[in-house]
Amino acid sequence: MKFAFVILFAVMLTTVLSAAEPVFLQNGVTAHRGNSGEYPENTIPAFQSGIDVGADWLELDIFQTKDGQLVVTHDKTTERVGDKNLDVASSTYAELKTVDVATDFRKRHQLSKAACPPQRMPLLEEVLLLVKQQNKTRVSIQPKADCVKAAVALVKRLEMESWVGFNDGNLNYMTQVKQLAPELPVFWDRGADTDLDADIRIAKQRGFEALVLQFKGITPDKVRKIKAADLEPGAWTVNDPALMQQLLQQGVERIYTDEPAQLLRLK
Question: Would you say 229 and 200 are in contact if contact means Cβ atoms under 8 Å apart?
Fold first, then answer.
């Protein structure tokens, strides 16, 4: 009787532990700056929508503020997306929170404030905690400045290694990721005219998982070479359905897009 109880308890414990392990999607759809075709880029609504539509990865950009906060934004200044122009690195987070970073999206899409409410620049920690609430979609962090060490430390503090990867074209930044946290996947972003053979050699040496090429430089032969090296071939940033279909037919396994729902319909 005791033996049977022990077996039952072990089975139940295994089931509970298995249920707690994340079971991430693997569909090759990276929501670029979140679902930025439908929501203001790099905002909480864009990231929530990227999760909701079923992208397996979100992509975001980070800087570090004057007061040491890691913020999610693409540009060095808020001029392009916001209603005022502040330099991110020389501003405090309190100052940056006064910028409505949905301004450009609202104007481009001719939306009212009711249809597109004001948005503030989120902290990286806020986005990570949002992602951690589910176990289907992961997030790839693109450091736009020298803040890799701080970002990796945050990931470790939140115990989010399973949910996080990094991407960028900066070799020093991506190498630093692997030095600090070898378990984190790295998607090394490359240009259209990159030396692919050299990139493959470097990627293998440094333990990177993927090469993501600017879409204009992708050919079937390059895709085959990347796959033969046991790396994931990707393309950035593609929003045209016909081009998405062409790249998928060529064997591209990951596409960065502002239109993740559109890409998912082609899968």
Answer: yes
pLDDT digits (tens, 9 = 90+) for 112-144: 999 999 999 999 999 999 999 999 999 999 999
Taking phi first (over 0 means left), then psi (-120 to 50 degrees means alpha), and beta for anything else, what does residue 263 get?
A: alpha
| 47: its two tokens | 């990231």
Q: Residue 20: its pLDDT value, please? A: 61
Among the listed residues 112, 134, 123, 115, the one whose alpha carbon sits nearest the alpha carbon of residue 42: 123
Residues in the chain: 267
Domain ranges of the chain: 23-266
DSSP 217: G
| Sequence-ordered list of residues with C-beta below 8 angstroms from that of 53, at least 6 positions apart, any chain | 31, 35, 260, 261, 264
- The CATH topology of domain 23-266 is TIM Barrel (3.20.20)
Residues whose CB falls within 8 Å of the CB of residue 11, separated by 6 or more in sequence, listed in order = none
Query: What is the amino acid identity at position 203?
Result: A
pLDDT in tens, 204-246: 999 999 999 999 999 999 999 999 999 999 999 999 999 999 9
Contact 19, 160 (CB under 8 A): no
Low-confidence stretches of the chain (pLDDT < 70) are 1-20
- What does the alpha-carbon distance between residue 247 and residue 167 come to, in Å, rounded to a whole number? 20
Q: Round to whole Å and give the CA distance between 41 and 104.
A: 10
If we measure between CA atoms, which residue out of 203, 213, 166, 202 comes closest to residue 186?
Answer: 166
- pLDDT for 6 equals 42
The pLDDT score that the predictor gives to residue 22 is 84
Listed in sequence order, the residues at least 6 apart from 160 whose beta carbon sits closer than 8 Å to its beta carbon are 128, 131, 132
